[in-house]
Design goal:
Chain A has 244 residues and is an all-alpha fold. Chain A is built from seven helices and no strands. By secondary structure, chain B is mainly alpha-helical.
């Protein structure tokens, strides 16, 4: 089966039914390996054991941005190629991206208190991630406001592409502005500055979280296709009702 | 495993991750079951999609 075949919702449902059990198994296994590696990882020479918060905070932050990137690509699919599953993918990604952004904000706040002496500061990195969370909530609200899914998909796609400007702002905020948040220590041109004993568990957790995102996204897309079927069948039922 | 003087912050972070991710997984699972139940109910009433044949 080629990728083009997956544009057919029925074939996509068959594909998700086959692949989801495997994805759930691999994600669970990688999460278990990641958490085991985290338990063995040494304390940081400056931060002590609080470095363990990084193993959930950093993957959550990456996936917060990844979620909006998926929505932006889907928005292009909706507006440019009119792919039948593009707005399904965009709608399904929004609550998952919002959840990872919330986790990023909470874990970052809990990491900030012992390290910076404060839960929150309105610096460029923290503020831009908070804005991302509000944008996710706005998109979710917009999907619920417009009843007709295709029309909602087009409106949300435009908003999503406008909001995509926030992703490079988040990424480069620690370089453009003087922030309390530290600069990048993994995604750098000169390579990661983290020791392998901490970097390897971090990457394992990042891959596990990414697989979790993909698994949940496919499951949520499957739900959205079913929701549209229910809506279509209820409309047909209403039209066929006597006196209509 | 000794989590040092800031153990509460570490435990709370992992607890938050657990709660948020379990809530997300739970919502998707419950949503799926509810949709399947509604679909089954509609099919039982004889409502079919256009691609499946004529509707009532």
């Amino acid at each position: 089966m080629g990728l083009i075949d997956l544009a057919n919702p029925s074939r996509f449902l068959g594909f998700t039914d086959r692949i989801l059990p495997w994805l759930i198994g691999v994600t669970g296994l990688l999460l278990a390996i990641g958490l085991y590696q985290v338990s063995l990882a040494p304390d940081d020479y400056q931060q002590g054991a609080t470095v363990k918060i990084m193993f959930i905070h950093v993957p959550a932050a990456w996936l917060a941005m990844f979620g909006w990137s998926v929505m932006s690509l889907s928005a292009l699919g909706t507006l440019v190629w009119r792919h039948p599953l593009a707005d399904v993918a965009a709608k399904a990604a929004a609550p998952i991206g919002a959840a990872f952004t919330l986790l990023c904000l909470i874990s970052g706040s809990l990491w900030g208190r012992p390290m910076w002496g404060t839960y929150w500061v309105w610096d460029a990195r923290l503020t831009s991630v908070f804005v991302l969370f509000l944008m996710y909530l706005g998109v979710i609200a917009l999907w619920r406001t417009i009843e007709e899914p295709t029309r909602a998909g087009r409106v949300v796609a435009i908003l999503t592409l406008v909001g995509a400007i926030n992703i490079p702002i988040i990424k480069y905020s620690v370089e453009f502005w003087n922030t309390l948040h530290q600069p990048a220590s993994v995604m750098r041109l000169d390579g990661p500055t983290i020791h392998a004993s901490i970097l390897i568990p971090l990457l394992t957790m990042a891959i596990a979280f990414t697989l979790l995102f993909v698994t949940l996204h496919l499951a949520a897309m499957r739900n959205e296709i079913l929701r549209r079927r229910v809506r279509m069948m209820q409309l047909m039922q209403a039209q066929a009702a006597p006196g209509h | 495993m000794d989590l040092g003087p800031h153990a509460a912050f570490i435990v709370l972070s992992y607890a938050a991750a657990l709660i948020i991710l379990v809530a997300l997984v739970g919502w998707i699972l419950f949503d799926h079951r509810a949709l399947k139940r509604t679909l089954a109910g509609l099919e039982k009433q004889g409502v079919t999609r256009r691609s499946d044949g004529p509707s009532r």
